[in-house]
Amino acid sequence: MDKQWFNDEINKIEVPREELYIAITKGMNRAKQEKPVKRKYKRRKIAWLAAASVCMCVLGSGFVFPQMNRVLAEVPLIGKVYDYFRDTVGQNLFASKLVTELNQQAVSNGISVTMKSVYYDGGRIGIMFTVDNPDKVGKSAVSHNSFYYTCKLADGSPKWMTSASYDGRVTKNGWFGNIEINYPEKELPPITTLPITITSIGETKGFWKFDIPVRQLENKKINLQQSVSSEDQEHTFNFGTITVGKESATIDYKVIYPLLGEHDLARIEKITDDKGKELDMFVSGIEFGRKVSDHLESEERSIFEKIPDSAEFITIYPVVRLSEKPVIVNLDEKTPFEIESTRSDFKIIVNKIQHKNKQLVVQYTLQNVDTKHISMDELINFGEAMNITDSSYMNQDIVPRGHNVKGSTVKVLDKEKLQFEGTFQLDGKYGVENFSLKDYVLEVLMSPYHPNKTLPPVQIKLK
Questions:
Q1: Where are the transmembrane segments (predicted)?
Q2: Which of 9, 33, 72, 406 could covalently link to 321 via disulfide, CB atoms 3.0 to 4.6 Å apart?
Q3: How far apart are CA 430 and CA 437, in angstroms?
């Protein structure tokens, strides 16, 4: 990818500064913290915050089930559809005849959509639908045997916006859509109605509204009451309950954070059964809000694959990703100077700052970096996240174009000594006006450089 093009595209975006820092910090933390889901061959379009504006609606509280709903008997096509999406939970529940058939149809702009099936296992909901007359949609909606759509889901809050993944597949048997939801509310209702409104299919906008009845499958709850703390006692996991579903399991727990770690992320890195086999993690760290006193307390949930029936215990491996506020330094400060972390012994030594030929060049050295867990490519990417900003706008939410440059191009000067050079392009459409070293500051993200804090593994007895 052309890095200057990338930086130019970044510079087009104007967002409030504080929100930007928090979003970048959390995004980088999650990217480093959370491992990819190990579902084999899974191909899904994950809805994240940037696309979440299209995922809104109101969660209904109705408990009426239409007469058309019934437990599936033999509907081979639906079972095959779960295979298209590599939805192993749906596949296994269908094989056990635990998926509920739907037959809710809506038509908008001549296009018919039918909700076909739903399951609700533990904290996980899966919904499958068909586009009944795809010839009305047009080929422009199709790419690599997939089609795209947008929908409004739940109450529109961030917890719902980021709780679901969406996929659409074009097959010889028709067009099928699949929505998987990791239930984002603290309480898991045994029965409820979930409104879903599809708002576009391909380039065709419309209004396909459905009220999806969901009934939680029979499950077993295990009260744990086990805790584990970090060596420095700053972070504690208090494990409360495991809900064991038919094909998935949900673990609820509380995490204690220090006040300094307002944006730390505590996560379950992996879970293994009593034979040492790692269980697939569907989602780690759904949060239900943080309470503040002399510390921060967060109620959280993780959802993972079915625990083998024969398992005597599972082992949980918790970790914490540390966060830290960005550091802001004057560009006219005499070099060399140090930027020190407030949460570890990590340092950045700024060796040289030079303004030449419409470019700002910053040479720097990293010290006390955990290179066993952070790659050279990641270190380069972290450096490219540095910004320069007009100091007169530092207390404003939005910096107007022409008064900051978001991102630099970084090259490695000495791999062994961790010496780098970052170059900011000052001219052009996304450059800055009337640049001078005394009027601009350098903004450095610190959070990405912190390694995971690993807590002792916890063995949970199941029997």
A1: 46-65
A2: 33
A3: 18
For the chain, give the longest Cα–Cα distance.
Answer: 76
Q: CA-CA distance, 356 to 375, in Å (whole number)?
A: 30
How does DSSP assign 115-152, residue by residue? EEEEEEETTEEEEEEEES-GGGT-GGGEETTEE-EEEE
Nearest to 198 by CA among 220, 175, 225: 175
Predicted confidence (pLDDT) per residue in 296-337, tens digit: 999 999 999 999 999 999 999 999 999 999 999 999 999 999
Residues in contact with 224: Cβ distance below 8 Å, sequence separation at least 6, in sequence order: 239, 240, 241, 242, 460
* One-letter amino acid for residue 181 of the chain: I
Burial class (CB within 10 angstroms; exposed 0-12, middle 13-18, buried 19+) of 277: exposed
Could you tell me the pLDDT band of residue 125, with boundaries at 50, 70 and 90?
Answer: very high
The DSSP symbol for 173 reads: T
Phi, psi angle pair for 165, to nearest 5° = -125, 150
- Paired with 236 in beta bridges are 229, 256
Residue 250 CB neighbour total at 10 angstroms: 25
| Parallel, antiparallel or unpaired: strands 191-201 and 149-153 | antiparallel
Residue bearing tokens 């064991």: 244
Predicted pLDDT of residue 422:
96
Decide: helix, strand or coil at residue 227.
strand
Closest C-alpha to 2, from 338, 425, 447: 425
Nearest Cα residue to 55 out of 143, 181, 187: 181
The token duo for 349 is 């030594």
Radius of gyration (Cα) for the chain, nearest Å?
Answer: 25
Rounded to two decimals, the pTM is: 0.77
pLDDT tens per residue across span 357-383: 899 999 999 999 999 989 999 999 999
| Angle between helical axes of 88-95 and 76-84 (0-180°, round to 10) | 160
Q: Which domains does the chain have, with CATH numbers?
A: 3-32+327-444 (no CATH), 40-215 (2.60.40.1630), 240-321+453-461 (2.60.40)
Where residue 40 falls among pLDDT bands split at 50, 70, 90? Answer: very low
Q: Annotate 78-121 with DSSP letters as a single string.
A: HHHHHHHTT-HHHHHHHHTT-PEEEEEEEEETTEEEEEEEEEEE
